[in-house]
Amino acid sequence: MRMDGLGQVPGDAVLSRWVSAAVAFEGWESIAEARRLAASFLDGLGTVHGLTVSEWVSQTVQLVVSELVTNTRKYAPGPCLLTLEVVEGGIEVSVWDSSPTPPKIMPPDPFRVGQHGLEIIARTARSVRISREPVGKRITAVVALDDVAR
């Protein structure tokens, strides 16, 4: 696992696209490590940059991280890259993996066991984007900083 730290915020610039953390997973690390990175990043936003992140937003970001990295482990074995970034009014969670096959977003079904990850993300995030990359794909979700328990 390789991790880049919190970016520097130049002067009084708005915390938007300046603060980020990234970790490359080789394929053997646990999902819990990805959640710990997210928790550490969010804690750093408060302690280093003075940005208040509610417990609800923190838990939601960690859930999104967990679901996206779990999907990568299940359907695209091999390396992946998790990036967390402050964006306009939110926390952007992005996961790249080497599989070009986009995930299937299943319709809600309370009787289906499993395969609810993207459904959960779509309901908790402000936006979700799936994009093909020159190699593989990237799934990006943005959790609004002003979200409150629904």
Q: What's a quick, concise take on this entry?
A:
It contains 3 helices and 6 strands, in the order E-E-H-H-E-E-H-E-E.
Which labels suit this protein?
disordered N terminus; alpha+beta; 3 helices; six-stranded antiparallel β-sheet; Heat Shock Protein 90
Would you kindly provide a written description of the structure presented here, covering whatever features stand out?
The chain has 150 residues and is of the alpha+beta class. It has a single domain (2-144), classed as Histidine kinase-like ATPase, C-terminal domain (Heat Shock Protein 90, 2-Layer Sandwich). Helices cover 31% and strands 26% of the residues. It has a six-stranded antiparallel sheet, with helices on one face. It is globular. The model is unreliable at 1-17 (pLDDT under 50).
Mean pLDDT over all positions:
82
The description of the largest β-sheet is:
6 strands, antiparallel
Strand order of the largest sheet: 1-2-3-4-6-5
Rg from C-alpha positions? Answer: 15 Å
How would the global form be characterised? globular
Name the structural class. alpha+beta
Helix-strand topology string: EEHHEEHEE
Query: Which CATH class applies here?
Result: Alpha Beta
Strand residues, percent: 25-35%
Alpha plus pi helix count: 3
Tell me the distance between the termini. 34 Å
CATH homologous superfamily classification: Histidine kinase-like ATPase, C-terminal domain
Count of the separate structural domains: 1
Return residue spans where pLDDT drops below 50 for at least 5 consecutive residues: 1-17
The fold-level CATH name is Heat Shock Protein 90
